[in-house]
Amino acid sequence: MADISKIRNFSIIAHIDHGKSTLADRLLEATKTIDKRQMREQVLDTMDLERERGITIKSQAIRMLYKDHILNLIDTPGHVDFTYEVSRALAACEGAILIIDATQGAEAQTLANANLAMANNLKIIPVVNKIDMVNAEPKRAVEEFKNLFGFAEDEIILASAKEGTGVERILDDIISNVPSPTGDENALLQALIFDSKYDPYRGVVVYVRIFNGKIKKDMMIKMMGTEAEFEVQEVGTLKIDYVPKDELTAGEVGYVIANIKDLRQSRVGDTITNDKNPAKGPLPGYKPAKPMVFCGFFPVSAENYHELRDAIEKLQLNDASLSFEPENSAALGLGFRCGFLGLLHLEIIQERLEREYGLDIIATAPSVVYKVNKTDNTSVFIDSPTKLPHLSEVRSIEEPYLKITIFVPQKYVGGVLEICQDKRGIFKNMEYLDPTRVMLTYEMPLQEVITEFHDILKSATKGYASMDYELVGYRESDLVKVDILLNQEVVDALSFIVHRENAYHKGKALTEQLKHVIPRHQFEIPVQAAIGSRVISRETIPAMRKNVLQKCYGGDVTRKRKLLEKQKAGKKRMKRIGRVDVPQEAFMAVLKIK
Amino acid sequence: MSYSLYIHIPFCKKKCAYCDFPSYAGKECLIPEYIEALKAEAGYYASLYERPKVKTIFFGGGTPTLLTEDQIADIFDALSTDFDIESGAEISVEANPGTVTRGKLKALKKAGANRISLGAQTFNNKLLKKIGRIHKEHEIAQAYDQIREADFTNVNLDLIFALPGESMDDWRDTLRKAVELKPEHISTYNLQLEEGTPLYAEKLDGSLILPNEEKELKMYEFAILYLSVNGFSQYEISNYSKSGFECKHNITYWTMQEYIGLGSGAHSYMNGTRIENTADIEKYLSKNIKEIKSEHFNSKKENMQEFIFLGLRLNRGLNLNDFTGRFGIGFRELYKKEIEELTNDGLLEIAGKTVKLTEKGLYLANEVFKAFL
Hints:
The complex is a heterodimer.
Chain A: E1 7-14, H1 20-30, H2 48-53, E2 61-66, E3 69-74, H3 83-91, E4 95-101, H4 108-119, E5 123-129, H5 138-149, E6 157-158, H6 167-177, E7 190-199, E8 203-212, E9 214-216, E10 220-223, E11 229-231, E12 234-239, E13 241-245, E14 247-249, E15 253-257, E16 271-274, E17 293-299, H7 305-317, E18 323-329, E19 333-340, H8 343-355, E20 361-363, E21 367-368, E22 370-374, E23 379-382, E24 394-409, H9 413-422, E25 426-434, E26 437-445, H10 446-449, H11 453-460, E27 466-477, E28 479-486, E29 489-490, E30 496-499, H12 500-517, E31 525-531, E32 534-541, H13 557-572, E33 575-577, E34 580-582, H14 584-592
Parallel strand pairs in A: 1-3, 1-4, 4-5, 5-6
Antiparallel strand pairs in A: 2-3, 7-8, 7-16, 8-15, 9-14, 10-11, 10-16, 12-13, 12-15, 17-19, 17-20, 17-21, 18-19, 22-23, 22-24, 24-26, 24-27, 25-26, 28-29, 28-30, 28-31, 31-32, 33-34
Chain B: E1 2-9, E2 11-12, E3 24-25, H1 31-48, E4 53-61, H2 69-82, E5 84-95, H3 102-111, E6 115-121, H4 125-130, H5 137-149, E7 155-161, H6 168-180, E8 185-190, H7 198-205, H8 213-229, E9 233-236, E10 239-241, H9 248-254, E11 259-262, E12 267-270, E13 273-277, H10 281-284, H11 289-292, E14 293-297, H12 300-311, E15 318-319, H13 320-327, H14 331-334, H15 336-344, E16 348-351, E17 354-357, H16 359-363, H17 365-371
Helix pairs in contact in B: 1-2, 2-3, 6-8
């Protein structure tokens, strides 16, 4: 049994690339939790994709021993799509290390994460990282800690995770400043699920923080949110590998394995209790995952439909926030309508399907969930433009709005204001963080944010802007559906919903884009955009007139064959709609239009 | 059985800006040693097939006319020892207007060559310079006259169109000048930008102005029309000749008959196997047959596919009986769906016992070939 007064549960929170994973590595080394030799860089990020994108997608927890104390480091996902997951991981802690990169200063997610930590009443340990860099400005970062969050100068630790500077002081401050957990091991069991993952050999592994009571092998447990019941097979703590224990008691962090087959039965944020003798109520803050962004995934060739289904199901085993249902497109055939927490989440899933499962898929343009108020005074939520009821039945359409916070150097503010206006943003506030940096607050339709907003913002500010957002609710907008016709046929998968004022411009931009990405065929192909039956723009892809290899003699046969095969393979990766071969880019082209 | 024989001479005074063939400038010092290696390889085939019978020979490059008179005689001597060259065999030699001399032509003629393929490429000095040719326009006619003086009665001119900056007028001018020389055969090639060549790099740079697809097509159409009006009928996608002067050697490729290739970078097709010699001259000089050759045994399917996409290059098309005779299955039943689609699109036609490209199909030949792959 662990002495609760010697436990410290904490997270590291930071804006992306501010050095969270490197600091975690140093803590693991300094506490001799893992051998320096077996140390892979950034051990907490285990998926390839995470390492490439430099972000942690799924959080994990690890137990360290230091100066007679148990330090549980709970890792958090580092992207705005996963705000809810971050908030649940923080709810499992009493403290958080908040990092500011000395070369960058505070960014949008620094503020967002700090707000989440404060909302969870965490003790924050402020750390200025990367002080070894030549372009570091630790003074500025210290000032920001003081001004934004009200820290005193002597609380702030100057560190270089890369070189190990300040690591010991961080560990000491965790012990002396982060409160030990409170909780009663003799009370009724309340354990917070802050993460869970699917292990092909052991089924679902649930990561928990025990708030009250204890959990042990053979006990019957119940998930208070989903009401699913299980018998505990194993509990333990984490040290890269599983370390089985007899029990986990109040204040402890560890894992539970209970023959859970489906991740959806162990939702992040849910409370585990004793089935026989349940707690009065769950821990606060549980919300079922709610997808914000939807898109269709279709196999390039119909015969891969079942493979795609298997692959999505497998990914869902490890990602309860991914939802899907079959979708039937007149143009693309059978596929799946998938729901995601955000655009990054979507991109990650798409990339994993292609990379890990080797599938050629077509992803249709992302859509938000619209609320359609009908003339019969009922309302429906639609996650795809094709589901929009007939115009005669539609009284009004509402779309989700975000509150978006942008941190930007003062000299780029003008450009950002323009972009936000183009994206139908409603100005809310502007605040100087220091004489050179500004925090802007806007309200903006989510649909505008998922169409390249982040890229545009980054390029307009030379990469200096950072942003964060949260959903604020639904607002009525004057929206219309634009259809695209290829060779006179409507391609349902290319339809999009847009503000009426932008319909003409976007329709024209998309037809131009499609003309560019769809290769020439042996016949002329008209590309049209239409609202209802009214055509608003038209382009024509001229017929291909010539494709012939001129020189072909004895030495060329194999080479020419390869060339022809390559051309043919390119064509095979396209989707045939009517008589037109449409490349995958075409379906994402709607995103590229400005 | 009588074979065709290809001999590769991989040396050039200077590499042209569009060329990605296995040929090298500045390695001429290796020529004597290379000839020994060629002779060794000829000897290998001589013993493998017991002095095989040969019906056509083609010296390509590179620049065969870079060889000296003695070297020419030396190679021909070795060939007539190792191969049973049929009397009346077509023996072609590629010549560069910048390297031919009366002496070399005389030596070639004496050794038995009877067809010269002159790499004119274009009759425009600016364009010649742009594509890195070593000769000027007036040297083409000079070389041509010398070829005729040496009593060659079968001459081809190689031409390239759609060159960077080439206008329709430039191309018409080139065709007119080529026809005026009265060769027996003309080949025209649409410039192809191959990876790794200087022109390709310029294209990536964006500094190259090239005719667009529409203009390329017009140039090609004009060549077919102009040459036919002047008595050259097109018999293959890129080849035109006076009646009876079709290149026999090249027809063996398009009808998928067997051939032996000697030299670095040369290819052979024997016993259903495609054999490729290393393009690395130094490696080729080792004379180690196993080391220099890589082989690919064609599957029946591959043979059928190649038979189709090579055969359809010929204007006369593909003989359906030949196909059945060769593969034991009918072309029509094997490719029912493809034939239907291609004929509906007006790219392919079947008349009696032949299948061939339509005029539209000629311009879109790759689209047709792909359907059978």
